[in-house]
Amino acid sequence: MGLVSLELDVGNSALKWRLMSEAGRLQGGRIASSPAALRLLLDELSLEKLNDIKVASVGSIERDEPLMSMLAASGLPVKLAYSQAFCGGVRNSYADTSRMGVDRWLAMVAAFGVCGGACVVVDAGTALTIDIVDGGGVHQGGYIIPGVAMSARALAEYTGRVRFDGADKQSLAPGKDTESCVHHGKWLAQYGAVQAAIALAEAVQGPSEVFVTGGDAQGLIALAGNYARHWRYCEELVLDGLAPVLASC
After folding, report:
1. Residue 161 banded pLDDT, cuts 50, 70, 90
2. Which helix H or strand E contains 31, and what residues bound it?
3. 78's torsion region: left (phi>0), alpha (psi -120 to 50) or beta?
4. Which residues contact 36 (CB under 8 A, 6 or more apart)?
C-alpha cells in the first residue's frame, strides 16, 4: 500500500476526508465540521499506518484551533494548504492571495489540471462560489453568493411575514404558496447565477469546461437538466487540489 496520507477539506458545515496512497484513493467520506466528529474519525483510523495529514480549511484561526491542536497531537506531520499566486498552471487574480478561500484555489488548480484549458469552477456549498479560469490558466475572477440553506435562513431571520417550513423543495417552477416560493426561489437563484456566470465567461473566452462540486452540487445539476449535460461533477475536487498545491508550497 505504501505511503498513505489523510486528506481533510474542512468546510463551514461539513468536513470531507479521504485516505490516499500512491496507488490512489483508499476510502473517504463526509462528517460534521466539528472537533467531536474529527475525534471520532481519528479514533476509527489506524494512524500508525499514515505518513502525514494534509489539510485545507476555510475556517478562521480561532475556529480551527481545536481541530489543528487535535491533529498536532496525533504526532503526524500536518501540512496546511494555502492560496498562492501561481500553481499548476493557474495564476491567481487576487493581489492579496491570503484573502482567497483555499477551497476555491484548490478547486481551480484541480479543475485546470484535468482540462488544461478554459473552465468555470462551481462549488455549491454553504456559499455558492463560481470562479472563471481562461485557457492560459489566468483566474479571471469569481463570485461568492449565499448558498441555498443560507438564502432560506436569511429570509426566515430578516423578514417578518415570510414564514415557511424547513423541508427543501427542489424545483425551478414558480411557487404558489410561501413555502414553494422560498424553496424554489433559492434554487432558481443558484441556477440563474451559475447560468449567467457561464454565459459571461464563454462570451469572453469561448467554450469552457464546467466543474461542479459541493454538498448541493447534485441538486443543482438535477435542476439544470439538459443544460448541465456537459458539466463535470467532481465530488472531491477540493481534495484533488491538495497534493499539487502542497507540493509547490
Report:
1. low
2. strand 24-32
3. beta
4. none
d(CA 192, CA 206): 19
Grid cell in block for residue 120: 468555470
CA distance 44 to 33: 16
Q: What is the pTM of this model?
A: 0.94
Q: 29-46: per-residue pLDDT in tens?
A: 999 999 999 999 999 998
Kindly state the cell numbers that stand for 56.
485545507
The catalytic residue among 64, 103, 123, 134 is 103
CA distances from 73 to 39, 68, 70, 77, 79 (A): 11, 9, 5, 10, 14
CA atoms of 19 and 101, how far apart (whole Å): 23
123 annotated active-site: no
Burial of 247 (0-12, 13-18, 19+ CB in 10 A): exposed
Contact between 29 and 17 (Cβ < 8 Å): yes
Q: Is 203 exposed, middle or buried, given 0-12, 13-18 or 19+ CB atoms closer than 10 A?
A: exposed
Q: What is the pLDDT of residues 86-110, one digit of tens each?
A: 999 999 999 999 999 999 999 999 9
Residue pair 146/129 in contact by the 8 Å Cβ criterion: no
Cα separation of 97 and 69, whole Å? 25
State what percent of residues in the chain have pLDDT above 90: 81
148-177: average pLDDT: 82
Q: Which three cell numbers stand for residue 139?
A: 483566474
Pairing of β 90-91 and β 119-124:
unpaired
Among 83, 103, 101, CA closest to 92: 83
